[in-house]
Amino acid sequence: MSRPRIIVIGLGAVGSAAALHLVRAGATVIGFDRWRPPHPHGSTHGESRITRATAWEGARYVPLVARAQRLWADFAGETGRRYFTPSGGLFVGRPDDYHLAGSLTSARERHLPHEWLTSREIARRWPWLEVSAEAEGFWDPGAGVLAPERIVEDQLAMAESRGATLHYDTVVHGIAPTGSGVRAETSRGAHEADAIVLCAGGWTNGLEGWTGPALQVERVTQHWFTEAASRADAPVLLLGDGHGHATAVFPAQHGFIKVAGHGSGRIGPLDALNRQVHTDDIAGAESILRTYLPRHAGAVARSVTCFYTCTTSGHFIIDRMPNAPQMVFASACNGFGFKFSVAVGEALAALALGKTPPVDVRSWGIG
User: Fold this and answer.
1) Exposure letters 192-220 (e unless 16+ CB within 10 A, then b)
2) What class of enzyme is it (predicted)?
3) Domain spans, the chain
4) I want to staple 31 with a disulfide (CB 3.0 to 4.6 A). Which of 166, 171, 322, 363 is the partner?
């Protein structure tokens, strides 16, 4: 393919990155999204996302997140905009909680800077944080906060400025191989190309012609509470609830503290999941704040729903479609995907062009 024509379906975190990397590589890019990203209908909204140098998901994720951080730093150099705010990350809970134990394992395997802290050490360094005597902590100095909407908006703007044709408010109904090429049926007609990059998140299963693995959609919520008292040098927090679950608490922005639990167990078809926030959604966030930050968080100010797209394994899938190598795809986030998204988009672009991705993604193949 001297100038390959590539269709990108889904222009959120991964798709916007893929479109940009493809057009930089000289491809003709045609992108589709059923809304205009960044939007509040999927997984990439809510002002902030955590990124970490370590990875409780497993040591194989460490090179991928390191690559993502490098790409965003380079992108910030191009645009002059800020996408990452360093804060460090403090993860608190029982020593066998996944967010502590997994982070420690990855740090040791990859020789990353880290600390293991007792409750006394936590209380001395962050006196505003209430921790039980039994609690322990993991410190990731490379953690911080990403700006998801800004990233997606700027990746799409740069892709368009370099020649990508992006169609918003357009529904893709189906995909199909056509000999050595591909075809996408959309609400704006049919389009043919040499390859498809598919990163449609929770809408993937509904595409006619999808032959990849089954994906599930999980409903979660994000909440903003008024900041009743400031916290000096507050890091990103991942706080255990004593039952094996963790909740993220972000450094305050504009006088509000954001709280987001990891997972909910509320799984179903995307169109059937409730987008309204209920009292019990807020109660879980309030409980964490009462336990750890009783003097610093006030009343809830607003809340929104958000959706994870999950694989049965709980890990990424980055691969070619079965029996259709001209279609490449990535499963969505499993609730931890944004921090990797620009590197996943880069990898998909490379695969679509028949090249080797900068980070080896073979361990995330279908099987």
Assistant:
1) ebbbbbbbbbbbbbebebbebbebbbbbb
2) oxidoreductase
3) 5-47+148-212+316-364, 86-143+216-310
4) 166
Q: Rounding to the nearest 10 degrees, give the CA dihedral for residues 244, 245, 249, 250.
A: 100
Is the entire prediction scored with pTM above 0.90? yes
One digit per residue, pLDDT tens: the chain, 367 residues?
579 999 999 999 999 999 999 999 999 999 999 999 999 999 999 999 999 999 999 999 999 999 999 999 999 999 999 999 999 999 999 999 999 999 999 999 999 999 999 999 999 999 999 999 999 999 999 999 999 999 999 999 999 999 999 999 999 999 999 988 999 999 999 999 999 999 999 999 899 999 988 899 999 999 999 999 999 889 999 999 998 899 999 999 999 999 999 987 788 887 888 889 999 999 999 999 999 999 999 999 999 999 999 999 999 999 999 889 999 999 868 889 999 999 999 999 999 999 999 999 999 999 7
Domain 5-47+148-212+316-364 CATH (choose: 3.50.50.60, 1.10.486.10, 3.40.630.30, 3.30.565.10): 3.50.50.60
